[in-house]
Amino acid sequence: MKFTKMQGCGNDYVYVDCTKEVIEHIPETAVKVSDRHFGIGSDGLILIKSSETADFFMDMYNNDGSRGKMCGNGIRCVAKYVYDYGLTNKEHLRIETLSGIKELDLILQDGKVSQVTVNMGAPILQPSLIPVVSDKDVLIKEPITIDGQRYEITCVSMGNPHAVVFVEDTSSLPIEVIGPKFENHPIFPDRVNTEFIQIIDRTHIRMRVWERGSGETFACGTGACASVVACVLNGLTEPEVTVTLLGGDLSIRYDQKENTIYMTGPAVKVYEGEIEL
Ligand SMILES: N[C@@H](CCC[C@H](N)C(=O)O)C(=O)O
User: Fold this and answer.
1) Is 213 close to ligand 1, i.e. is its CB under 6 Å away?
2) Is the N-terminal amide bond of 131 cis, ω within 30° of 0?
3) What share of the chain is helix, strand, coil (3-state, %, to 5)?
4) Ligand 1 close to Cβ of residue 11 (< 6 A)
5) Which residue from 88, 153, 157, 164 could staple onto 230, CB 3.0 to 4.6 Å apart?
6) 259 is in an annotated binding site
7) CB of residue 208 inside a 6 A radius of ligand 1
């Protein structure tokens, strides 16, 4: 199987052009290629397919083989892939995902894609649609007990489920211990991605993330968008924020009039190769 390894803020995936390659047993392949000792090493697998309703279809899998509905860092890399490999010459792209069609604009440097802006759509706050079990209309600063300790979560879907937790300091967080407990808490029937947010000032936040199906990653694009929505709902930041992640910065703008979130960030090719499956 021919592949390209790419990363956006250190959130790395193996990308395969499925307009040319056929992959069987996709969840098993995702687990195999993602292994950092016996495989290529990545947070998961992203398949680029043709689409009947958009320019391309992004099909993403976490490193445990589970399928994700949307991936913010991944979709920027898909845009770079299809442009740089000559699958399209469009600088404005429409990419279909399991959570709908996203519109993207490429930012070019020396003829290659360096940054991409994505219209990430509207945040979803209704608990049943996130999904999170609750009889409330929205979950803002909702108490939850993890390992006997009380936290407060603000729940947002960006096409995939997120719980946002505000903390004093992200660097001292026992994320390996508490991350899986949030992920598998019974109030989240489909598990959850959890963002831990430290407010630096009203236009700058620091974030660490525990992703459902992949563990701690260096960045999560949908998570950064969900976190800025949570910051605004809690009155903690302006709607335009720089999110500093372990692997770099994302610029997030929550346009409240349009009820739409725009994400701008890097997309980088690491290398390409071939693997025997
Ligand atoms: N890293 C991604 C999100 C990937 C999917 C997520 N783990 C899920 O299962 O919902 C991003 O950049 O958004």
Assistant:
1) yes
2) yes
3) 20, 45, 40
4) yes
5) 164
6) no
7) no
Q: Which candidate in 9, 155, 220, 225 is catalytic?
A: 220
**CB of 214 sitting under 6 A from ligand 1:** yes
Q: What is the ipTM of this complex?
A: 0.99
Read off the DSSP letter of residue 171: G
69 CA to centre of ligand 1 in angstroms: 8
Residue 122: strand pairing partners: none
**CATH number corresponding to 127-258:** 3.10.310.10
Domain boundaries, the chain: 2-116+266-274, 127-258
Each of the 277 residues of the chain gets a pLDDT tens digit; together they read 999 999 999 999 999 999 999 999 999 999 999 999 999 999 999 999 999 999 999 999 999 999 999 999 999 999 999 999 999 999 999 999 999 999 999 999 999 999 999 999 999 999 999 999 999 999 999 999 999 999 999 999 999 999 999 999 999 999 999 999 999 999 999 999 999 999 999 999 999 999 999 999 999 999 999 999 999 999 999 999 999 999 999 999 999 999 999 999 999 999 999 999 9
Tokens of 43: 């947070």
Query: Helix or strand or coil: residue 11?
Result: strand
Task: Please indicate whether residue 71 is annotated as part of the active site.
Answer: yes
Of the listed 71, 77, 225, 231, which one is catalytic? 71
Domain 2-116+266-274 = CATH 3.10.310.10: yes
In whole angstroms, what is the distance from residue 53 CA to residue 16 CA? 20
